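User: Can you write out an input/output pair for a complex, sequences first and structure second?

Assistant: Here is one pair. Inputs:
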Amino acid sequence: MLKVLKSGFFTTIQDNGRYGYRDKGVPVSGAMDMVSVSRANRLLENNLNAAVLEITMTGPTLLFENDTYIALGGAWLSPTLNNKPIDNYKVYKALKGDILSYGRLEKGFRSYLAVKDGFKTTPVLGSQSHYYPLTATKCISELQEIEFNECGSFAPKISELQMDTYLDINLLEVYQGPEYKMLGKKQLEDLFLKEFSVSKDNNRMAYQLNETITGHSKTILTSATQPGTVQLTPSGKIIILMKDGQTTGGYPRILQLSEEAICILAQKKSTDKLKFKMFKP
Amino acid sequence: MKSYPITLKTFGEKAILIEWPNKVEEAILEDIIRFKALLESELDANFEFVPAYNSIAIISNTTNFNLEKLEKKIPSLYEKNRTLIKTEKVLWKIPVCYDVEFGIDIREVASNLNMTPEELIKIHSSHNYTVYGIGFLPGFMYLGGLPGKIETKRKDVPRLKVTKGAVGLAGKQTGIYPQESPGGWNIIGNCPIPIFNSNAKEPCFVNVGDKIKFESISRAEYDLHKIEGEVGIYKPEKISLNA
């Protein structure tokens, strides 16, 4: 068990996501930055769907009640194991009684904790990912105990990976969205030349941007949306849907982020700068 | 059977969007549902299909597939004789208690429409509505076919909290809030049964393309269905519309 001594700002359990129910309005959920999660899970030789903790902005304080191996990834939150600084993308043995805690947020926005074989919580509709009210809770809470399989010995084939460099990237690679063709010259210029910044309205459902482009009066019939869909509201506001985003929407879908761009955006916080770049094959 | 001009659009790295003419029409929705059934039988389980109004998105849940190849295959699949595909046409009877305890806006709405609450209830519960889409929230149905007589504007100030099961009216739309959420619709009743139940094997019994009829129930029936719903023994009444 992992005992939550302090829960942090917003810490959730996430796996690969909840698939097969989008036609019933269920968002896919899953880790926002799958690139970082895959790297951490690979180091532990886990199944790539193994559940991890997604730690947002401020880290939790966690007590290991059994032995296991861990790997961290994503945002840099100055983590320590028993007060000794540890690195991202490196396998560490955590012993019964060890305490993992986090310090200052230095880079990125979402950090991940993977344990050997993943956290074992009850799946809902095929996924362990938190999504309220499908799951009973929104996030982890103080004094909660999260189960994992004890692992006394493990010899990783690779014990360390280079640190991410992509936390510094602020260029989001995009494809044309279904309503891309409605954009006029001015809108396109603004979209691809302007620098945008992340609004304080950013969460697992959607990221809004502070800067607007010219609005429009186009209405569309409600139609499918995906994580990474960039919507344009009539007033010119840009909304980028993320992993807990709705499965259908009524705003024109002007762009679609690449899968990697979704992970890059997941590491951005309020006021962080970004630009769009059209994918060129 | 009528064929429509369909348009294909690549929608990111994992999806293709197929669009029918930009109209709210039952015949179009039926064609979409039939094509969805055909796609489900032709493509493997790694694909999801999200139909709504005049479109269907084919989304792959792996990156390990060839988007271009699939895109090329779709027009010929559409040309295939879709009449061979059997889809079940279903009408669900959904109980609603319009008691003022739940229908907190019903008096105001009826008065704005120059009718009595009883007349409003009669009109609202005597029509069949078509499910044109499910989205926004798990189990939230976009219903079409609201009689013009009971169209009403949404509330000026949205409520921060609308209770689970609340039945609302706004513009040309009516629907049920499947969970507690903020909302700006006028609330005229409450549905005691869960439209979405994440503990069930099939969490939402309604499918896009189905029809819904609201059935006015008493407060006592409401309480009974509520308990039945909570212990999971409530079975919504299903009527097959296939000839």
